[in-house]
Specification:
CATH topology of the largest domain in chain A: Neurolysin, domain 3
CATH class of the largest domain in chain A: Mainly Alpha
Number of helices of chain A: 21
Radius of gyration of chain A: 23 Å
Strand order of the largest sheet of chain A: 1-3-2
CATH architecture of the largest domain in chain A: Orthogonal Bundle
Order of helices and strands of chain A: HHHHHHHHHEEEHHHHHHHHHHHH
Oligomer: homodimer
Strand content of chain A: under 5%
Number of domains of chain A: 2
Shape of chain A: globular
Structural class of chain A: mainly alpha
Largest interface: A-B, 39 and 39 residues
């Protein structure tokens, strides 16, 4: 059986290596590729994806997994081998259930939809995007129908990024936070307090923003021997190895927050991938457990650390070094308040912590209604405006700042947005557990993040993708996803900031 | 048969796409990868190489090529289809003749040798590199022995980069240029003329060098919609698509020539790849014909244009814009003379045009002697010093500036250096043919390079890799590689500059 495992592991290493090669192609496309390279790059990426899919669904893989299944049950469920076989079985089952012609149609449709979306967004023209979006949702339904055992089509899509989680569970979680977050937002809006964030809206030269953000990332533990920072239109983090995890950001010269907090956010993602143990290097288990768990790391570093009162004492001096004229006179408390201004707004990626999840819940409810056929794609802009009015008390003036704002649907990412909200919630679970072991405020105030990173390493990072997200959270916290710590955090922090 | 050709073409497209993906990985390694990524990147590249090799040598490919062979003979030998089948047959035959365990041993040996070389070069320690170099040459001999039909082991290695050319032909060519180049060099050294190149040795800030070099590249026809310029330790050009061909350079802030002429050199390579017709995009024929023909393009743009008296009138104003203090007072004639200073030196990449080929001939003669067993690897430093004294009249003071200077042998590139000299020679063949059609001096003086690029497009670029280098040169010039134009060029240009 060891022979079979060795061969199986070799195939998994190949899948990993080819996937990482695809990652480099994708990073280059976003960061450096000249425009002329687009068509060829799309084809190269598609070829790599096909070769990977061929290995994943090969008869050899099927036979190996069948042979290894019984052996797996003799293994320690915490072993790397068990985790790798589990992951491969899941990927094999999913991939074999999906006809390859559906995969190509989805890939082609997404490519065209993304181009159409870019144009439609720039021109605020939902009608031009509509036929593409209708195809995307039709294909999402067709994809979901490949998994007839699920209780709801959303489950089949959700399972791609949060294995084992269901629409019913997401609904339960969202129902728990929706009321309290709305209530808090209303109390803040009614408080009459209007925080001054003008210090963030000054002239901040590009190169200095990048240097300051990188220095802040280094304080969080990011290391340029194992990473680098580049600028792109839509920031992301990407891992090519447990020793080469790159982050990206974007710069607005008249607004400091996107570059700075964007960098801290991607640093959180990167530290997760960099914290996967070296012995998993080269295997598909050498990455984060799920999109939601990944977001729990990025949001923890961006918000629980980056936007905390305590860390302002460590972060502000870095910024003052690069921007003495703009920020030299600012106090840590003023900085803390400025970066925590709450204001319902149209754009998800610019949302404050109190209203952020409401942006997600709107998308979740819309996706479910679309998948159930209760809503037609053509009626999306109306539904979007109605939901915004209901949850945030504002109505987007146009589709560009409304339903056209995010690229995700063009990419075929239906059943994906929930992970951003789950990340916020899970981050607070880690944070409240960590509070039993570490004096977090004291550490953050001193800019000493190493113990926090090590704690996350021991409870989250070290397991890579060995467990399902559910199992990982159960193992680390002793229970399922729990909204209590998150709601307590929001109420505590923003209750104090706004005196409500 | 059309079905079989379609399937064959699909496999060739896959080989092309995966090869380009490997190219992106390699470019990133040189230009941007953090040091931590090295080990994983080596593995990813090896995995891609193996997947490509598996397709190239697959039974399916063998059967398709057998089926297509007869059909090929019914095709126009100038057709794209004929060229693609010819190329695939050649690659298939070579790849099948090479045992895969030899390929892995070479790959592993080269990886270790490259690391050892970096250290040995830095520490001027040939003894530490010796065991690696012995393995590299032993494997080169073993590789050559896989092709028992060749007349000389060098032929088997040479055929990898110059299909169809033999050691005997290279020898014939080198024997024709060796005497005249040595003689010209001696006359120059004895002339007592010492050109002043101090204008190149001033302080030139990095960013301005890059901007000026890029502007010069644009004047040659390089277009940032289809390319970009980055800095690396060892410059190169690389193609990811006929619409995405990138160049690299390096900067010394106290010496203008390496960045500027390095950029013009790589621009020559890039314009070749960018000149391949769009209809070949995505196929292995969409690239240059051979290493030597490629070098004929880079050296043409670097030297025949870049270092010409006429082009100095167009190039110098660009430089003066970026370096008014350093070069504002310089005349085109003074610039032309400075960049054509002849001085025997130890380092190949810094050699002037008159002595450059002698550097290559030294390496060629040493490689042949090593392959024949007339020279032992351990005696290389002595042989190197003796040859330098014989051909250039100087003896390297140490191995770092002698036998350890180039990375090529560590990479397993035996039978490769000759292409640099062949490139010089072939460049002059194109140039003298072109002289019948175009007023080159007038065009260069005006900075109007488009007609020159279009001429090269029509006679060289448009054919991609459809023909063997021999066939391409025969087709374009009506004969084989001819040293006459090159020797005439050197004698004319340097005879005038030095009055000898």
């Amino acid at each position: 059986m060891q022979d079979k495992y060795t061969r199986f592991q070799k195939l998994m290493e190949d899948i990993h290596d080819l996937g990482k090669a695809a990652g480099v192609l994708s990073w280059d496309r976003s960061a450096y590729m000249p425009s002329g390279g687009a068509a060829a790059r799309a084809r190269q990426s598609a070829t790599l994806a096909r070769v990977i899919h061929e290995i994943e669904t090969s008869d050899e893989m099927g036979e190996l997994l069948e042979n290894l299944d019984e052996w797996k049950h003799s293994l320690d469920p915490d072993s790397d081998e068990f985790g790798l076989i589990r992951l491969a079985q899941r990927e094999y089952t999913r991939a074999r259930a999906t006809p390859s012609d559906l995969v190509s149609r989805m890939s082609e449709t997404n490519g065209l939809a993304t181009m159409a979306w870019q144009k439609a967004r720039a021109e605020n023209d939902f009608a031009a995007f509509l036929p593409h979006l209708e195809k995307v949702f039709a294909l999402a339904r067709e994809y979901a129908s490949c998994f007839p055992h699920v209780a709801h089509p959303y489950d089949a899509l959700l399972d791609r990024v949060e294995q084992g989680l269901t629409k019913a569970e997401v609904e339960r979680i969202f129902n728990e936070v929706k009321g309290p977050q709305s209530d808090l937002l209303h109390r803040i809006m009614d408080s009459g307090v209007d925080l001054d964030d003008s210090l963030l809206h000054q002239k901040f030269p590009r190169e200095a923003q990048l240097a300051a953000s990188l220095e802040a990332a280094k304080m969080l533990g990011y290391d340029l021997k194992r990473g680098r920072l580049d600028t792109v239109a839509h920031p992301f983090a990407t891992s090519f190895s447990v020793n080469d995890v790159r982050i990206t950001t974007r710069v607005y010269e008249d607004f400091l927050a996107p570059c700075l907090f964007g960098t801290l956010h991607e640093t959180g993602h990167a530290l997760y991938e960099l914290g996967v143990p070296q012995r998993l290097e080269g295997l598909p288990t050498a990455r984060g457990a799920s999109a939601g768990v990944h977001e729990s790391q990025s949001r923890l570093f961006e918000n629980l650390i980056g936007r905390s009162a305590a860390f302002s004492h460590a972060l502000l001096p870095i910024l003052q070094k690069y921007f003495p004229a703009q920020l030299g006179h600012v106090t840590p408390d003023a900085f803390f308040r400025a970066v925590n201004k709450v204001q319902p707004s149209f754009i998800r990626v610019e949302a404050d912590e109190v209203s952020y999840n409401l942006h997600i819940i709107i998308r979740f409810e819309i996706e479910v209604a679309l998948l159930e056929g209760r809503l037609a794609v053509k009626d999306l802009p109306d539904a979007w405006r109605a939901k915004f009015q209901e949850y945030l008390g504002i109505t987007p003036p146009n589709d560009r700042e409304g339903v056209l704002q995010d690229v995700h649907w063009s990419w075929g990412l239906i059943g994906h947005f929930q992970s951003y909200a789950l990340g916020n919630i899970i981050a607070s679970q880690w944070w409240s557990m960590m509070a039993k072991d570490l004096p977090q405020d004291e550490l953050m105030r001193a800019g000493n993040i190493t113990p926090i990173r090590e704690w996350l390493g021991a409870h989250v990072h070290q397991f890579g993708r060995k467990y399902t997200p559910k199992d990982l959270i159960q193992k680390a916290t002793g229970g399922p996803i729990d909204t209590g710590p998150y709601l307590g955090y929001l109420e505590g922090k923003f209750g104090e900031v706004y005196g409500v």
